[in-house]
Structures are given as structure tokens and as C-alpha cells.
């Protein structure tokens, strides 16, 4: 009788163990099937977000790293394939942030919009998605190719700062759109900046070899000058208060200044290089500037 009771006890224990294994396996399989929970998903970086689409329907994507309260934004490629090296520089920063996530201070969130004019990039590259400098060789064509969006609008003349229906680029008249933010690419940038309450925005361009402050009607913001000085000190680019080679209206940086958000324009020295080390140093200087822990 005692032996029988022990056998039943052992059998019960084994049955419970088997049931536990089954429950555990079921939990693992179901978890894999449904993906990470919302809390877990928030900790997976970068967060990939389609913030809008171009005239031809190509996605405009923002990649976000970190989850601090202060939001810093970098934007490349607003002039598309004409300034394709600004897109490559954005890719390089993204790769660096993924490889070294601890570089983003805990109180900071960093977002990168690598290609703000994907139709203009497509015009030069002839393909969608990421590309390399090799992909661009012998494809650049005439001067200015890929600068405009698919409506023929210069996106950096389509923002609400002293906007006019026509503006200038290197002595040429360019279409600035039907109204401020008439273009979907400009609206995507506007909405993302406002939704995230960005503390500052950096635009990468080429090829004037300088960092420019932004202003609209009321001069340069103190925060803009601080960002410009931090970036130039770290990168070695000259600091320039304002672009005066010709009149520019409707630029994105000026619109940001008009609503109180510091913005700087970083102009690479050529259309072919990313000057990675200089710009990494500049980005790190801004991480330090906007982090309360430093």
C-alpha cells in the first residue's frame, strides 16, 4: 500500500512537471508569435517610423535612439540626390548610434531623418533604399540633378519663413511651391518636429564648408548660436551667422527660428565626402550641450 502511494505521488509530480514544461513552451511560442510587449518594444532601438511620403509615394523615415525627455533631430537629404553625401552622412551616424548606443545620454533622444527628399535621391541613384558612394558614381548628371522634389519644388524654400512662390538658388529662380508646406516632404518634417518638441534641429547640406546659424524676422536665437558654436568648435568648420551670397526665402531653418527652435545648417565641403570624423565630433558636442548630465 505504501509503495502504491509513493508511486502515485511520483506520477503526480511527473505530471505536474510535464504540465509546467508544456505551459512554459506555450508561453515562449506565443510570445515569439506576438512579438515583444509594448514595454519591451519601447526599449528596442532604433524605433523606425514612417513620418510621411514623398510626392511619388516613397517613405520618409525617422529613426530614433534613446528615450530621454530632450529631443535632438538630424536631417539629411532635403536636396535629394544633389546632396547625396548628406544622406550618406546620416546613415553613418545611424550606424554609429546602433553600434554604440551608450553614446546617447540617458536624458536625450536622438532622431535621424536620413533622406528628406527620397524622390530626388531616386532621380540620381535609380534605386530605392540605402546606397553607397559607389552607387552614385557616373550617375550625378547635370548640375542640380535630384535637388528638387517630384513637383519640381525646392523643399528648402517651402517653409513658412518669408515664403514667396519663387526663390533663388545660385542665381537661378526656383519654384517654392503653391504655399508654405504645400509639399508632403515639408509637411512631414514640420509635423515630426512639432510632435516631438525638438530642442534643436541640424540640417546637413553641401558644399559651402561652414556651419550657418538660422534666423527669420527676429535675429539669431541664443540657443541657435550655442548650437552653432558647439558644433564648429568640435568639427573645425567655420561659423557663419547668416548666408548672404543671395537671398533665400522659405527655408526650413528660418521657419524653425520663427517658432523658437534653434536650427543650424552644416555644409560639407564637397558634394562627394561625408567628413565623418568632423561631423561625429560635432554631433557628440551637441549630445553634451543638450544633456543635463554633462
Could you provide a short overview of the structure?
The chain is α/β, with parallel strands linked by helices and 294 residues long. It folds into two domains: 1-35; 45-290, Aminopeptidase. The protein contains nine helices and ten strands.
Explain what this protein looks like in three dimensions.
Helix 7 crosses helix 9 (276-290). With 294 residues, this protein is of the alpha/beta class. It has 2 domains: 1-35; 45-290, Zn peptidases (Aminopeptidase), CATH 3.40.630.10. Residues 1-6 and 21-42 have low confidence and may be disordered. It is 39% helix and 18% strand. It contains 9 helices and 10 strands. The protein is globular. A hairpin with a 5-residue loop joins strand 1 and strand 2 (59-65). The chain has helices spanning 2-34, 38-42, 84-99, 118-125, 133-136, 184-196, 222-235, 252-258, 276-290; strands spanning 47-53, 59-65, 70-75, 108-113, 166-169, 172-175, 200-206, 210-213, 239-240, 263-268. It has an 8-stranded mixed beta sheet, sandwiched between helices. A two-stranded antiparallel sheet has the order 5-6.
Keywords, separated by commas or semicolons:
alpha/beta, disordered N terminus, Aminopeptidase, 10 strands, 294 residues, two-stranded antiparallel sheet
